[in-house]
Amino acid sequence: MDIEDRQAEHIDYFVKNASTLKGPALANVVVEATSHPSLFAFSEILAIPSVLELEGTKNSAFLDLLRMFAHGTWSEYKNVAGHLPQLVPDQVLKLKQLTVLTLAETNKVLPYDTLMQELDVSNVRQLEDFLINDCMYVGIVRGKLNQLRRCFEVQFAAGRDIRPGQLVSMIDILGNWLATSDNLLVSIQEKIKWADTMGEIDQKHKKEAEEKVEEKVEEVKKTLSMKADIDYPGHEENFSELDGVMDYDQDRNRPKRRRHPIG
Where is this region: Disordered (predicted)? Predict the structure, then answer.
């Protein structure tokens, strides 16, 4: 079962649980969801009416915390940590994992220095252990640790929740990609058509060349035949007579068998 399938089960559980609660009771659900080791998407929980009703109440900080895990990063959390509930270790780990996913959205080569700064990691060994054990092993990213270049080369990264306003940008990006793909397809079709045309022309030239060669061969044959008739008139008959003379000479020169008298 891949990470998307596992998340679907967990999301369904938390959505059903949160839908039956109100007010302060939702705080525990938020903490549990943001601490869960296999949950990395929170937009469905954010869309629950009872969760949205936390806005403007004394528990609104938990709604802000849930939004931070849906869209934010570790460095963004630190900037507003004084206005949000204090994180437990599992939440800290989760937010740092989500930070890697956010960085991987815009760049497939992540320098070690950038990662260490964003994740508050003091050395390369700790960073690589985090990427291997807490990211790649979990299944949220795949990639290569390039120690020579001091970077993490991302091959796959799980998607995060869409930020408010990000949907319009994504539609524009997909629209541009579709237009580019259409133009590329037209260009490929034109090149295929051009290649087919050139192939037909090449075959036509080849056939014409072969026909010209055959004509030349026939002309040479005719020329040689005419020349032979002029230089050696009746050469076919002469050859026949010559063959007869040669046969006669051979017979005359053939040794005769002696007859011995019968004693």
Answer: 234-263
pLDDT in tens, 103-116: 999 899 999 999 99
7 CB neighbour count, 10 Å cutoff? 17
Q: What is the largest CA-CA distance in the chain?
A: 158
Closest CA to 99 of 119, 126, 124: 119
Task: Specify whether the CB–CB gap between 45 and 14 falls below 8 A.
Answer: yes
Do residues 40 and 99 make contact, with C-beta atoms less than 8 angstroms apart? no
175: left (phi over 0), alpha (psi -120 to 50) or beta: alpha
Burial-class residue 67 by CB neighbours within 10 Å (0-12, 13-18, 19+). middle
For 144, the enclosing helix (H) or strand (E) is strand 141-146
Please check whether residue 53 is in contact with residue 18, taking contact to mean a CB–CB distance below 8 angstroms. Answer: no
- d(Cα 144, Cα 155) in Å, to the nearest integer? 8
pTM metric for this prediction: 0.66
pLDDT digits (tens, 9 = 90+) for 174-200: 778 788 888 888 889 888 988 888 888
3 state SS of 151:
strand
Give the N- to C-terminal CA distance of the chain in Å, as an integer: 120
Helix (H, G, I), strand (E, B) or coil at 143: strand
